[in-house]
Every structure is written in structure tokens, then in C-alpha cells.
Amino acid sequence: SVSDPSNMSVVKETVDRLLKGYDIRLRPDFGGPPVGVGMNIDIASIDMVSEVNM
């Protein structure tokens, strides 16, 4: 399990290695082509629709 104390050091080392040199201020592949980003939005409900409040 990931939360097992004996695995925590391995997980930390892996995450540290993956993020080495990462700069949050730069977008992925900075200097390369634009990165496509997609998303979905699910609306659970719409309530109290009124022309007065639009």
C-alpha cells in the first residue's frame, strides 16, 4: 500500500525525481507547440430559473 511507512520513502523519491526541474510558472512543453486541454462539465441540477434574475 502507498500509505505503508516502508513505501513512503520510495514514493517520495519517485515524486521528487518526477518533479525535478519543474517550474510551476511555465506551461508544459514551454517553447514548443500549444498544449491542448479538454474538460467536461456535468451539471447535477438547475433550480429556480427566473427571467427576473437573469
TrEMBL record:
<protein>
    <submittedName>
        <fullName>(spotted green pufferfish) hypothetical protein</fullName>
    </submittedName>
</protein>
<dbReference type="GO" id="GO:0005230">
    <property type="term" value="F:extracellular ligand-gated monoatomic ion channel activity"/>
</dbReference>
<dbReference type="GO" id="GO:0016020">
    <property type="term" value="C:membrane"/>
</dbReference>
<dbReference type="InterPro" id="IPR036734">
    <property type="entry name" value="Neur_chan_lig-bd_sf"/>
</dbReference>
